[in-house]
Amino acid sequence: MQELTHYLNGAHVKGTSGRFADVMNPATGEVQAKCPLASKAEVEQAVAIAAAAQPAWAAVNPQRRARVMMKFVDLLNRDMDKLAEALSREHGKTLPDAAGDVQRGLEVVEYCIGAPQLLKGDYTDSAGPGIDMYSMRQALGVTAGITPFNFPAMIPMWMFAPAIACGNAFILKPSERDPSVPLMLAELMEEAGLPKGILQVVNGDKEAVDALLHDEIVQSIGFVGSTAIAEYIYGTGCANGKRVQCFGGAKNHMIIMPDADLDQAADALIGAGYGAAGERCMAISVAVPVGDETADRLIEKLVPRIEKLKVGPYTAGADVDYGPVVTAAAKANIERLVQTGIDQGAKLVVDGRNFNLQGYEDGFFVGPHLFDHVTKDMDIYKHEIFGPVLSTVRAQSYEEALGLAMDHEYGNGTAIFTRDGDAARDFANRVNVGMIGVNVPIPVPLAYHTFGGWKKSMFGDLNQHGPDAFKFYTRTKTITSRWPSGIKEGGEFNFKPME
Ligand code: NAD
């Protein structure tokens, strides 16, 4: 049994708490490694190392910090296959999807190569007589991030790349379900030239998270995961005076207008609903066809596509569309919610229950499900299922469809499929959701824009990556300067505007 480590001060370090979590192989249901769960003392050790290393890193000029990012991009490309394989082995997603996970993180690293430009301040010459005013962005110090299981490469990179490019030290507390890739990323950052102690990985659970939340040295906390934990971390982190951004769960609606290209919409729903077994915060989990005729035609197109989906282990290569879900508990939760859908009167059009894969009977595979006639009061509509289950809610008008997305407590992403520019424009303007797709089912913004939901999908004000990340990981300092030649009239006692 492999015993995984923490990564502290440039070295793999065994856990000392005596507590471990099982890292599963979701395809076989076997335990494949033990992940150490850090104690408060281990977290404090990491924080002390980070605090000692950070000032020297902040003093390195931004161009040199950017060169570490350049080299890191090369190393990610060099090790892409290795990273994807390690990711699939612990997460269960297919290899191309795992490579996409690394790639979407890599693109944010590329953006961070622009740190010298992004960190430039503002300057006002002669703001008053002999007075210049300028502002600069300075690193926060020791920063930390807590990441979910579903993107074990991408989301850590979304946090640590900008944090480190800005001159901070970063402590990553990845998901205990798939911690190997985060450890590999920390090694690669050092191979790229990052000084020891600037990126550390502390594996753990609530105990480690609480230690970070209550540590006075830690200046900021980034979190991505489920909404209940996001709310807890946001509340506790803010109460402790930290800068906090927390990204939570989702229930993403796709509105299908009567004029939409239904083949295109059906294809989009298959990828967005069932890709990665539905374990994406930007997955489409609710299809909202407008009008019964649209709904009937859409279902007709969806069913054969869903029945053709190939579910299996990543090792089966191109023969697989999606893999197992991450744990037995995740599988049980999906099955429980599916049962509530049936009990509460939704129509199960494609029944993925009792899916069985020969040779992988103990794996956490879930067959694809499609529900029709789902209503607002049902549990399968209200809750995030995070599995290969697509719910269809029939709307009788565009306004009703828009209202569904507006009234839902989550507001991460949404999409509209239509040929009508006015409808698309109206939808994008009015809907209270953070990321909108127009004939694009998973509208994940690229690295140089920002990523973030609204409502219960996000707590905080600044989004992930893009320019917001450089704001989140720095503080603004504004300097008003006057040289002695400008002070000729004695003391100033009144607070007054610049002349
Ligand atoms: P999770 O909330 O169970 O875990 C996320 C992190 O929090 C992990 O590192 C975990 O160790 C830690 N954690 C778990 N319980 C904790 C507790 N009681 N106190 C403190 N920390 C705790 O989420 P998950 O199952 O790993 O990920 C899936 C969820 O993440 C879904 O809800 C999904 O929508 C969401 N997600 C959101 C986004 C986004 O950008 N909005 C992106 C990806 C995933």
From TrEMBL:
<dbReference type="GO" id="GO:0016491">
    <property type="term" value="F:oxidoreductase activity"/>
</dbReference>
<dbReference type="InterPro" id="IPR016163">
    <property type="entry name" value="Ald_DH_C"/>
</dbReference>
<keyword id="KW-0560">Oxidoreductase</keyword>
<dbReference type="Pfam" id="PF00171">
    <property type="entry name" value="Aldedh"/>
</dbReference>
<dbReference type="InterPro" id="IPR016161">
    <property type="entry name" value="Ald_DH/histidinol_DH"/>
</dbReference>
<dbReference type="InterPro" id="IPR016162">
    <property type="entry name" value="Ald_DH_N"/>
</dbReference>
<feature type="domain" description="Aldehyde dehydrogenase">
    <location>
        <begin position="13"/>
        <end position="479"/>
    </location>
</feature>
<protein>
    <recommendedName>
        <fullName>methylmalonate-semialdehyde dehydrogenase (CoA acylating)</fullName>
        <ecNumber>1.2.1.27</ecNumber>
    </recommendedName>
</protein>
<keyword id="KW-0520">NAD</keyword>
<dbReference type="InterPro" id="IPR015590">
    <property type="entry name" value="Aldehyde_DH_dom"/>
</dbReference>
<dbReference type="InterPro" id="IPR010061">
    <property type="entry name" value="MeMal-semiAld_DH"/>
</dbReference>
<dbReference type="InterPro" id="IPR016160">
    <property type="entry name" value="Ald_DH_CS_CYS"/>
</dbReference>
